[in-house]
Amino acid sequence: MLRRNCFLTVVFAAASLMTGCLSTFGGPASGPDPGPTPVDPGMQSANGDRGGGNPDPGGSPAPDLGLAPSPDLAGPPSPTGSISLSLASSSGSIRLNDSLDVTVNVTPAGGFDGVAVYSLEGAPTGVTATFNPPGGMIANATTTVMTLKTVGDVTPAAAQALTIKAVSGAISGSTPLTLDILAELLVSIPKGVNIGTSAAPNLTAFGAQSIPTIFVAPGTKVTFINTDSINHEIHSDGTLGIAHEGGPLMANGANSYTQTFKATGTFNFRCHIHPNMKGQIVVK
Ligand SMILES: [Cu+2]
How does DSSP classify residue 249? Predict the structure, then answer.
């Protein structure tokens, strides 16, 4: 009995396996069938590019319709009203390697309600302007701050006629700014400056007036300031007419030190307290 039961069990198990194999086999067999089917749609999609072309044309009209109303909506405010700009002072001055913030008052009038972009015209080479904000929706009186920056070798010039503009399509407003570019170079020690070591002197200890050098003309003033939190001191060997600073260049911009280059040449300088803070100015 036991043997028979065992035999039956074995037969049963074998039958189960066979059935399992068959059902498993049947699965893949039915799988390949759907396989080709997905491929067919893929092939059709290649053919269906034409069909896809239909959606595209359909899409094209939609964006067109979408775009068309926008200009129409933006259009009406543009032809109406005006923008006026004004400054607290229409003149200013800036040193070489310096920056100057100018607040510009922006006032819409005549129902103007649109987006304007600010710009500066007439800036000499080496003078750049950035606006914060650079532009935007103007529905009420607002301001933007124009930051002028000069590089070290801008040619000094008095009474440069600049124009600050706000432009919105066909509408623009402007205000003049007369800028004196002084023959005075600003040398600023940055906050947290690395004082360097003899093995690795800091050649950028004086900002832009480091190596590589900047160039200024004879007769140019140089004003040193110290924005660091510790004192420094400008060391000069007296060449080019620049004297050694008589005391410290105080922390946090508490004082300044101004000298005038009297001759052309290469002027190497350093910090008297920290001799591995090095700088160089070429006067030519
Ligand atoms: Cu120093």
Answer: B
